[in-house]
Design brief:
By secondary structure, the chain is an alpha+beta fold. Helix content is 51%, strand content 17%.
């Protein structure tokens, strides 16, 4: 076996170092290529996903569609403000009457509506849905807010009935507000039941007034029975939506 000359040792060492460096470079390059391929594959996958989303989307996110969205938001804001003016809302800072004052207002309204109905020979019940407060009974303070809303609605309903020239308002009932309607905080529901005697023409006219009213009436059902040759016995269940916008 030939001996390695001491003069050749530095060259051999250099070759070994270069060889190791080349091997390391090859390994690193292969690792980088694999990493690049993996990243490229992931990128292509994500690109395909986004392209699929864009194909399904009716309005791709470009400058034109963003301007359209902005325009739609402006229109939505205008409609919202319009609804705030149009729909009936409870005035948060409105001063409510004390129980005795409410009772006085109730009696005054009852007299006015009965006198007005008599001018057209229309019969309406004196309590107007407030039977429990007949005589000297005064409502409790915590019930005043809802009672004020209910008396306002009843005044509107009776006025419509008089204008439509019904024959008589046989009864009007304030039903308990439906539970669960206040969860969203946007609106509340006040239900009523009316029993009237009228002609078909008067009934159609009354329903038309409800549909065109600024107050948001929802007619739940109308039950009609023949009472006489000229009169119908009609039971109407309806609700009023009070919005808080």
């Amino acid at each position: 076996m030939s001996k390695i000359s001491s003069k050749n040792i530095p060259y051999i060492a250099s070759l070994v170092i270069i060889g190791i460096a080349l091997i390391y470079s090859l390994i690193s390059m292969r690792s980088a290529i694999n990493s690049k391929n993996n990243s490229s594959g992931a990128l292509k996958k994500k690109t395909a996903e986004y392209q699929n989303i864009l194909k399904k989307s009716k309005t791709p996110p470009n400058r034109s569609s963003l301007l359209k969205v902005t325009s739609n938001l402006d229109e939505l804001r205008e409609r919202y403000n319009y609804l705030r003016k149009l729909l009936p809302q409870k005035k948060e800072n409105e001063e409510l009457p004390v129980p005795l004052e409410f009772k006085e207002n109730l009696l005054k309204l009852q007299r006015l509506l009965i006198e007005r109905a008599k001018l057209y020979k229309i019969s309406i019940p004196k309590p107007l849905g407030f039977v429990e407060y007949e005589g000297g009974i005064i409502p409790q303070t915590n019930k005043i807010p809802v009672l004020v809303e209910q008396i306002d609605i009843i005044q509107i309903l009776v006025s419509y009935l008089i204008e439509c020239r019904i024959q008589s308002l046989d009864s009007i009932k304030r039903l308990e507000p439906l539970l669960g309607t206040q969860k969203s905080g946007l609106y509340r529901t006040l239900p009523f039941e009316l029993n009237i005697t009228c002609s078909m023409k008067a009934l159609v006219s009354f329903l038309a007034k409800l549909s065109s009213s600024k107050t948001f009436f929802i007619v739940k059902d109308v039950n009609i029975q023949q009472k006489s040759a000229t009169g119908l016995s009609v039971k109407i269940n309806l609700e009023v939506l009070l919005f808080k916008l």
